[in-house]
Amino acid sequence: MKIIVDGMGGDNAPQAVVQGAVEAAKLIEHEIVLVGDEQKLQEELAANGYQVNDPKQGKISVVHASEVILNEDSPVKAVRTKKDSSMVRGIRMVKEGEGDLFISAGNTGALMAGSLFNLGRIPGIDRPAIACIYPIMTQEPALLVDAGANAECKPNNLLEFGIMGSIYMERVLGRKNPRVGLVNNGTEEGKGTTLTKAAHEMLEKSSQINFVGNVEAREVPHGVCDIIVCDGFVGNAILKLTEGFALAVLKLLKQKFTEGTRAKAGALLLKNKMYELKGEFDYSEYGGAPFLGVRGSVIKMHGSSNANAVKNTILKGIPYAENRVVETIESAVLEIEEIVNSED
Amino acid sequence: MKIIVDGMGGDNAPQAVVQGAVEAAKLIEHEIVLVGDEQKLQEELAANGYQVNDPKQGKISVVHASEVILNEDSPVKAVRTKKDSSMVRGIRMVKEGEGDLFISAGNTGALMAGSLFNLGRIPGIDRPAIACIYPIMTQEPALLVDAGANAECKPNNLLEFGIMGSIYMERVLGRKNPRVGLVNNGTEEGKGTTLTKAAHEMLEKSSQINFVGNVEAREVPHGVCDIIVCDGFVGNAILKLTEGFALAVLKLLKQKFTEGTRAKAGALLLKNKMYELKGEFDYSEYGGAPFLGVRGSVIKMHGSSNANAVKNTILKGIPYAENRVVETIESAVLEIEEIVNSED
């Protein structure tokens, strides 16, 4: 298998990307292909002590691309005009069968637009979604679908998110029969908006998922379900609010625990525990966010990914291509059509 | 001024309600009227040592109501059939001019339905909203509008929420020129859904508010704005997720800080700081949630309000009636009509 990595995408590229790739390559049999400015990438490989033909270091190669899509670029325009960007080149390699998986920390909108232009949607999937790991303290993480690709959704989109998320969690995260929950403003059936009421009916009809019904946002951080289904506007709010609140709590703890000698002494004794606490909020351990519904395996990393996040995204992304998630979704769409048609 | 309090609403009624009223009465000149089962309320007053005609204890009277609206009651049906409930009686007293403010910890849906049936909307306000205090750690709290009354909104509703929230914060919470932010999935103008884009345009046109533009959910816990404007579905998610996450963090801290002798010793030294931390999340200090846009002053308390929450809701609710918030909103609607008409 060949894993294509955008060498130039993200705030810390190419350094962190190359370092993460070098670390990952040591642990896997598959080949990693870095796409981007060849000279810079080779320099970074050398700086990380990578040597071709050293079996202990695994297989890394470089494919040159002369352009870079920036975060401030307009997504659609960028993928149309920067044809020789590391991102477009990488996506095209998956399209042409020269790679099995593409990973990028670059411009999210451009990565989605480029994936849709070049790889297209899985037939029968109306709206591909970004599936994002949602950390649950002291438990296995959940998967949030959609994390922001589709701010406005129809009920069948939420059905698609539930089914695709379920397949991803089984095949990639290895959790059997994951619980699918629909974010709503009350748990009772019949609660909600026009959208969530109709989506609830459709999700209930699916025989492919373990639908546990409506879930309230209050229960989400306690692990009430494995797949958190919502439209991309709400998903974005849930994800960002959690990040923002976690940061605010850590800041407040730091402030409180350094006020006065007594507090400082206490904090010193709790140092390890505080590290563990910070670890609960650490996204870099969890891997990236797949674009479910795209006809090809594409994974988005956080824009500020460090080397550890890059390494983990590569390692945890392998089953996405290896366990044929795209093909499995392809074979699951028939039921979606049946359910949607039965509603008309 | 007369403050009408639903003696029977909420999980801890009538005990906590009466105790909170007794504590509040000592601190204010205004009369508190408890509505509900007269015998039970008098018993609770006695149990709390309340004596009529003791000037130090303030003025409390009881008005009998034979029925109680329960949490599990269907809101609309309950307010239609339970005419002699403490809730409907209380709302009617405001309607008839026998009270200036009604406070209840009972069924939220019934309180909104009963308020709309009996008091009606302020002319020109399309959708009344629940405005909820949103705690910001180490800073003054923000106000979230709408916290859940209107799961589906039109752009003009969000404009109304911004204007009404702004008036409430100035007149009741005493914050001058409060910053109004629109929750969106990006801060740039032009970002968002059909709803948020149109609402952004309208909010920008208002000369009555200090509109600071789009705000991302990530920035909300850091105090990016004073009035958090969003539809009731998103508002419910923000509020509930924050509550749920705060609880999960406190639970995790407790767990981590009791693992092993070293951690326990550290936690002992940090005991006061931990209390302070818990206090940051304590809703009972902040007072209740006004129903903005209703033609009368109605405040909802949290269903699980304790005596302290009841006391604070009474004390902090007084300016809602005293500073003529309803009348100020009435005089602000002309601009809303102009802005909405200019969009057509």
Strand order of the largest sheet of chain A: 3-2-1-4-11-10-5-6-9-7-8
Proportion of residues in extended strands of chain A: 15-25%
- How far the N terminus sits from the C terminus of chain A, by CA atoms, comes to 43 Å
Radius of gyration of chain A: 21 Å
Oligomer: homodimer
Q: Greatest chain-chain interface?
A: A-B, 54 and 54 residues
How would you sum up the global shape of chain A?
A: globular
CATH superfamily of the domain at 129-285 and 329-344 in chain A: Isopropylmalate Dehydrogenase
- Tell how many strands the DSSP assignment of chain A holds: 11
The tally of helices of chain A reads 13
Global structural class of chain A: alpha/beta
Residue stretches of chain A low in confidence (pLDDT < 50, at least 5 long) are none
Name the average pLDDT of chain A: 94
- Give the % helix of chain A: 40-55%
What is the annotated CATH architecture of the domain at 129-285 and 329-344 in chain A?
3-Layer(aba) Sandwich
CATH topology of the domain at 129-285 and 329-344 in chain A: Isopropylmalate Dehydrogenase
Level-1 CATH class name of the domain at 129-285 and 329-344 in chain A: Alpha Beta
